[in-house]
Every structure is written in C-alpha cells, then in structure tokens.
Amino acid sequence: MAIDEGGLARRLWFKFRDDSVFSLYTPFFVGLASATLHSETTFRHFISQDLHFLKAFVHAYELAEDCADDEDDKNGLRDLRKRAVGRLQIHDTFVREWGFEFPNEDISKDIATTKYTDFLLATASGKIEGERSVLDKIATPFEKTKVAAYTLAALAPCMRLYAFISTEIQGIISPDQDSTHIYKSWIENYSSQVFEEIALQNEDMLDKLSVSLTGEELEIIQKLYHQAMKLQVDFIAAQPISDKQSVVPLSRVHDFSKRHLTILCDFDLACTAFDSAAILAEIAIITAPKADMDGSDQTQLARMPSADLRSTWDVLSTQYTEQFEQCVESIVASERVEEFDYERLCSALEQLAEFERKANERVVQSGVLKGLNVEDIKRAGQSLILQDGCRSFFQKIVKNENLKTDVHVLSYCWCNDLIVSAFSSGDLNVLNVHSNELVYQESVTTGEIVKKMESPMEKLQVFNDVLIDRRSEGNKHLTVYIGGSVGDLLCLLEADIGIVVGSSSSLRRLGDHFGVSFVPLFSGLVKRQRELADQDCASNWWKPLSGVLYTVSSWAEIQAFILGT
Hints:
By secondary structure, the protein is an alpha/beta fold. Helix content is about 60%, strand content about 10%. Residues about 295-300 have low confidence and may be disordered.
C-alpha cells in the first residue's frame, strides 16, 4: 500500500487493521464478492445509505476547511470536498445503471448510519466525546487546526477501508466472472486508482495536520480513528441479509443448540510468537547461574553451568534445523503427485516421525532440561507472548453462551505446564491440553520427557480420541483444526475445516507435493457462498473437501469467520 512508511495514518491503519478483516468477512461483503447479494433489497439499502455518508463527508470537509489555518491546507481540504461532491454525482450514475429508483423525499437513515454521521459531524464541529468542546478551549486560529486534524481522523479510515475491501474482492474475481459480475462497477470504482488517490490524499492530509499536535492530542486522534473504524464495521455488519443464508459467521450459520463445535489447535507458532523449545532452553540457561552460585545443587539435581547449557542448546538447535530441512528435501525429491494422495503423504510423514523421535532423545540425553523449577516454567508460561488475536479469540469462544464448544490444544511441546500456564489467565483454564510432559522430582525437572506426542500420526490419534468421546454423547458435531506446522497436516486434513495459520514453507511444500490445495479463507468462503446460492439448499453447506486447507494470515480472520464481528 503506497502510504508513507512513517506516516501517522499508516500506523493507525495497521494498528486497527483487524477491524477491516471483520468488515471483509461480513455476510454483506461475502455476498457482494460472490455476486449472490440480493440487489433489490440488501444492495439497494446499502446504496441508499451511502448517500447520507457522502453528504456528511461534504459537510465535514467544509467544516475542516474553516478550521484550517494554512492556505495550502485549506486548498487540500477544498479539493477533498470537491471530490466528495463528484462522488455524489457518480453515485447518481450508479443508481441509474443498477435500475434503482429512490423516492424524491429524503431517504431515512438507519441507526448505524446515524451513529457514524452524527459522530463525524460532531467531531468536525469540535465536539469530542469525553472532552469539553474543543472550540471553547482554542485561543488562536492556529489552534483550530487540530479540529481539522480530528475531522480527518474520523474520515480517513472510511476511505482506506473501502479501498482495502474492494481491492481484496477484485483480487479473487476470476477473469471469466469479471465481465458478468453484477457488482463489477461498484468493485472497480472503489478499487480504482482514482479512489486510491482519494484515500491517500485523506491520509496525507491527516499526517500534515497532525504534525504540530501534542501527545495528548495525538491520543485523541487515535481514539477518533478507531471509533470511526468501528462505526464503519458496525454499519457494514448491520446490512440486512434476508434473501439467502450466508456462509458466515459459522456460529450463526449452524444451529449449535443441536450441534457441538470442537476446536482443536496447535500451540507452537500457531498460538505463540516463539517456539516453546527455545523458551524452555532459555529458562534453563537463565536460572542455571543461580544454582551454580548459591550451592543449591546439593539439594537439587546436578546441572550444567549456564555457558555449557547455551552451547549445548545451540548445537541441538542447529542440528535439528539442518536435519529437518534435509528430511523435507528428501521427501520432496520424490515424484510430485497430480491429485491429492493421502496414503503417500502418510508414508512420507513416517520419515519425519522417526526424525522427531531421535531429536527428542538427543535432548533428553544432553541434560539441557534437567533442573528446571516448575514455578519458573509456570511464570514463563504466564508471560508468554501469544499471537495477536489468539487469546481474544479463545476468550470469546469459551464465553459464548450460544455455542456448545470445547477447545483442545494439541502440541509437540515438551512441557504441559508451560501451555497450561500460558492460557491460565482470562478464563482460559477450561482449555484441554494434550502434549508431552516433563518429569519432576520435588518440583524440579529430571531432564526426562514423558513422550505422548512426537509425530503427526500420534497427534492424529489424539484428535480422533477427542472425536470418539464427542460422538459417544450422540450429538452432531463440527470440527475446526487450526495449525501451522508439518506436524499438523493430518489433523488439518481430517477436520471438517482445516485452517492453516502462519507461513510455514515446509508445510506448504510438503502439502503441495502430495496434492493438498491451500486456499485463502476469504476466497474459499466466497466460492462456498456461490455454491450455496446455486444449490438453493443450506442443509449441509459445509461439506468437507478432500485435500483442501484454508489459509489465513491472522487470528482476526479466524475470529471473523467463526464468530463474526
């Protein structure tokens, strides 16, 4: 995206970009992208509300121009106002093109539209929620500039949001659909270079007007930007979808009063930002000097000095990485299959299983995991950094009273206590953890590992055991598996919905070699929506597709798909 790397607008967009994902995954935009949205009801309503937004934009730019002190700023805001007037004229052209007829009298605003337009015009008038009227505190014309900056903070995310959404949709429309897509003109309009220039011009103006603001005033800018984004998301989510059932969000598509949702997830680099093996090694290295200096080794298991621990771990880590890559290379050196071949994939993963077992045995024999105190491990787990949105997703899942859900974490991690501690806050102690375990002697590790899960096949066995328990209860169930490593491949393929999070090149290479298809989740949902509309049947819309996995770049996508806004 062509935004100045250091600009305030760019930083705010990326800070609150999760909200844009929630907008993209709404029933409205999945329906629009799939060309299944009912034009005479839902889209007509959306277009009618757009008039109110454009009129509010024109007025807001006019008020911002009055507040600007610099002549260049006034000219820039005047140009933005003229562009908004021009978009009103284009809007009329589109309305005629789609064959809509609006009554001569004013079209009523819906609640979500009113909330945003009232917020925007109040901001442009210097009335900030939670603050005294800004204009009452201004002593000089120069200080009025901050009102113009506040107004742009309430405008800029709207332009960027629609540029983002339309570009995402444009990117998944196939050439054979391009000429026949009912919403082609809307998509092309908002993904055009002209609209991108409008979005950039708003962001550049926000950056320029904010240069002289204080830290407190910049906090207000951030608050207004986020509030504007959330109000836009609320507006999009509020669009009436009554013509056909949508495929999103999952929690509202299925009747979970009669169906159980089981979510299973890997831990390392799926939930975490760092590999747990390295974290355990670091605990050992950091705590080792204490034992060396205070003589406590007399009552504890003998430990290596910290320098020896670090060098030993470096050797183990390098050896693991090199041999893993060699193992993958030897597998993909075989002939690539043309169609998905589950049996050959399983045979190949046996090689990796043997590699993992030998690697774990080397760790045990090295003694690097000897002498760790369980309390140190738990403290490290509690301070563990999870991927953005991961904790929030699980918190919302377990607190959702409308869902019958259980959540299981399946991991090669050597230490169950580390995982349990990582999820101990935020009411997440209800998660079921399945992993290997360290052996303790009076709360101190002996260096041994209780090996319960060392291979993709053993992970799949745990997966199946969980489902057997669920099936024994007699309920219909739906399974979602979230993973990001080679060890997750079989579970991802076995689940009703397999979601790949992260960017493991090894997982992609192996999967691709054996015919696994990796489909971006949004485009996969759009395709499902079209299929649902064609079948005119929603009884079993999510029929698992053999060898197909869905990819996401963030946990926000997972939350948007399963739970919605």
